[in-house]
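Appendix B, record 7
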Amino acid sequence: MSPGRRQATLGAWVLVVVAALAVITTRLEFSYDLGLFLPRAEGLDQRILVARAGDTPGARYLLVALPAGTIEPAGLRGRLASDPAIARVPVQDPTGGLPPDPAWRYRYLLADMDWSAAALGNALGERLAELGLAADPGFENLVRHDPTLQSARVLDALQVDAGGHGRTAAGRPVLVVETAAPPFDLDGQAAAIAAVRTALSGEGINPDTALISGAGVFGVGLRDTIHAEATWRSVAASLALALVLWLAYRRWAVLWLAAVPLVTGMGVGLAAVALAFGQAHGITLAFGFTLMGVAIDYPLHYFSHRRAGSSVGAMARVWPTLRLGAISTVLAYAALLLGGAEGIAQLGLFSAVGVATAAPVTRFVIPAMEGRSDTDEASATATPATRTRGRTGPGFGLPVAALVVAVLALVPTVTGPGGDQGFWNRDLAALSPVPPALLARDSELRQAVGAPSMRYQLALADADQARLLERLHALTTVLDEAVAAGEIPGYRSIAPLLPPSGLQLERQKAIPGAGALRVRLDAATQDLPFDSAAFDAFVADVTASSRLSPLGPADYTGTPFESMIAASLFRLRGVVPGDDWWVTLVDLPGDVNPESLPALVDGLPSGVTLVDYRAASEALVAGYQSRTWRVLGVVLAVIAVLLLWRVRPARAAWSLLCVLAALALAAAVLRWVAGPLDLYHMIGLLLVAGLGLDYALFLGRDEADVTDTRHAVATCAVSTGVAFAVLAASAIPALRSLGSAVVLGVVISFALAWLSSRRPVQP
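Structure tokens (predicted):
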């Protein structure tokens, strides 16, 4: 390479690196939002599933479980509420024994009320008996304001405890804490978690004995885990890789030269993610930096072909095959861009751009750094003594046998009782990088505070919120009949809190005036020992109710009911393309008989959708897998055409057969050892396809440099296996799945290509 060309090459490389760093430092932000890895939803049920699994209204809640048998300290909630990181702590008696507002003030507009003297007399008689059982100042105050217990009727219809507290089956008291920071503000969430721990310590409770859960806990824990693992695993992988390269080449210069394409590809790939998405998920980086490990193979092929005694024309000999493998790998990674999940698309873009950068950096920048001449790189005529020209043809027998064995092993998983679900894990929770034990604990705590995990819900969608609430009220009338008939054990909706405005006005018109109400109270208390002024507060409240404006969702902002309203009534984007629709959900808790649901839904008003979360999640994951495989199939077809165009048909067929056999055999072993495969296993197998094709292309080359080629491929396989073995030991389930899939796939791909490649013919 001439001095001028060398300077121009290095100058262009420096400009690219500087530009990438400028983009990263000015445009890139990091995210730990788990919703980025959710696939694209299709249909109302899947859209609701994704909406509830992402930044849901309750995502700001921290659930704090005290040690079993502990009595909640009187000052704990006060300590929490005084911390700026905590927005709100629901209290057990927010109004001195009265139900919380606005349900309290609007109680006579939220449910039908019989204002006759007879009905009032019956209610007062019941209160008299209840007051005689126990003297409770709080209950006495409630009776003065609400002798008919109309407010209790509203809360009973909701079937919830609005106090933000509960108890687990193991006897742990649980309270709800709302953070000031949104769930994606991990620094704010970390401050809230620290505030909870400080408050517990201040009340004499060891924070380590309490359980704290919630979306913020998951995000902070994931960030800390990624940071910790990225540090020591990167060091461990780097040391192991350095050892492998030292043993393979015995030259320290190889170590830093091999890192140039890898680091450059990482920087340019990260800049591409910053430009396309504006943010990069921590999991994407953890995946991406590891997936970019394939780029280390490119300089290794070059270094193996220019070892002592074999340096002439090394780049010219490896570049055609290296370029073909890089193009194929980029196409494979590009398939991830079309799957529909933003986090996976980030991963695909990062890896594709990184590989597309690392290959030309290997071709042009490394020789320029070494200062090698044009003659050295252009001449490939020399034949060192270590090479042998004559070789037998490619061996198809071993890959065919491996493919047959793999297919036979996979058939029972696809045709068994579970169908293809016996092969794929379609549980949406499997996509979460949060350990299953933490998800199970969060579910238990949510059940304790009145947010039970349910499989079924009914959904209504409408472009107009007022019309939606009217339809919800009509639906509850039908559901009441279904409960009475025993078709469902019960239901829960926000209808008692948000009756249609017209219905509220009708109930308001039925409220008697203050004079008429006192006359009826006098008649009701004629035979009861109540003082005539005992219910002045009741008369005042009723009179105030007659002047209220109809209650709407916005009136619940900042109240204990806000999270319930927000979780069951929300705007959903994309139900109809280009439109935002209002959606309300009706819970179907309890032991619901799945076989009776279709008949129930058929009898409901039109426009009601049954949301089966298990079926929706399985369909969501299945749809993603199906789309990814279709795209991957097209990509493989393009790669096959590319191979047939650039290499002889026999070599192309053998290379593809080795890749397919390795993928099938690795999938079979994973399925029988680790259980049904998840999405991250699939991504790992995608990487295996790129690596296996690289091994097969080089080992099947027509050139005579067999020794150098085998040295290069062996070094590549060992270095990749070592790097991903470190990942396979990760505490993050997703990374563990990826690492185990790649390690197994690399071993099988290397063994098949090595053993079935053409052997030297001894002279």
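Remarks on this record: Residues 396-442+613-763 form a domain with the Multidrug efflux transporter AcrB transmembrane fold fold (CATH 1.20.1640.10). Confidence is low (pLDDT under 50) at residues 92-96, 374-391.
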